[in-house]
Amino acid sequence: MSPRPKTVLIVDDDEGMRDTLGAILRRDHRVVAVETGEAALEVLKQRDVDLMLLDVRLPGMGGLEVLRLVKENHGMVEVIMISAINEVETAVLAMKRGAYHYVTKDFEYDTLRSLVANAAEKRDLSRQVLALSAQVADQLGRDFVVGRAPAMREIMQTVEKIAGVPATVLILGESGTGKELLARTIHERSEHAQGPFVAVNLAAIPAELVESTLFGHERGAFTGAHRQQIGRFEMADGGTLFLDEIGDLRPELQAKLLRAIQEGEIERVGSSRTVRTDFRLIVATNVDLERAVKEGLFREDLFYRINVIPIRLPPLRERLDDLDELIDLFVRRYSVKFRKPVTGVADSTRCILRSYHWPGNVRELENLVERLVAVNDRGWIDDEDLPFEYHLARIEPSATATETLFQTAVTTFERNFIVQALRRSDWNVSATARYLGIPLSTLKHKMGRLDVREVARRLRSG
Fold it and tell me: Contact 43/49 with Cβ under 8 angstroms?
């Protein structure tokens, strides 16, 4: 697939120059031409522009001011400044403000085409660097976070002891506690570290495809098996096989798994030939396997075979000492990924998050921070950015009156709602009252009663 042609925005008040530049570039690029800086900024709001040819002297807003605004608000657009005369000071100032190049209007056509092509290449490289940075940050951010919680430190002590031993590990814990990350950590510290790490979420695979996914199949083994396919057991040869949610494995496949673990060999679906495979097995579940064994849902012999080295990952509510470290990790990760300059989270916001019970554990925390960073436009995450249910977590029921709890919840909602309305109205109280449809005096009274003025002042200054 050939790359899409770049869109070039020509900004020049000389119609003849606009026509000339358009004729030179239209063969290889999409061309949009306007005669003022104000019109150029409107175009940038409405469509994706890759490059700009920007005249220094324009009616109304000058070219250098347009350049400043473009680099502040559309940083990926490469700008080539054009001037009728060669002014060294102007050229130096343009380059300082982020222009890609500065040329005079007596340019040669081929030279201009080459310059535009080089600017387009730089633009593509800049995008690639950002994409790779996000990928690297995302990958590096996937390290298992130990933190300060005593339970997590005990887990890492166990990992250090057993990583070099090819014994089966059973990781227990609620969904979202980081079981796969712990499995990867064990793999990276084991003698199989140079081999593959193959992760399989058994709960995510359709029941009719689990056997084929794990053991592979021969051509013609079933409808749709048009070619031979190796399974995850063979893919993991020489490395580590991680089976997540093993409690969901069907009973008839549990026997086949037991043989694979004990004998180190498997049979593909549709074949009677055994295939040898050597791997380190790590399994995980959020199911109470001992109870499943008693209820006849899980084979007892398989349970004892995988329960060699059990490790229990605590839920996030039991390792709140690590909450700040996890928050900071996720803020850094998604600030890079979304290219948002979010620098931190307020102490009061962290206090609210420590009061929450985290049913979704670390995964829920990561998803929350991802959402907060994605929609943030202020560089800082504060109380009012949190969804309402997180505020409710810190509201304790009163021992004397149920109405107190209700009123506290209402007050919390009302304060946050007013602050969001103020923010939407650029902190203009009169405009906020009109937006909310209430008298200005009523809004001022509520702001005083709810301590909104101090909250608004702190957010506005931050």
Answer: yes
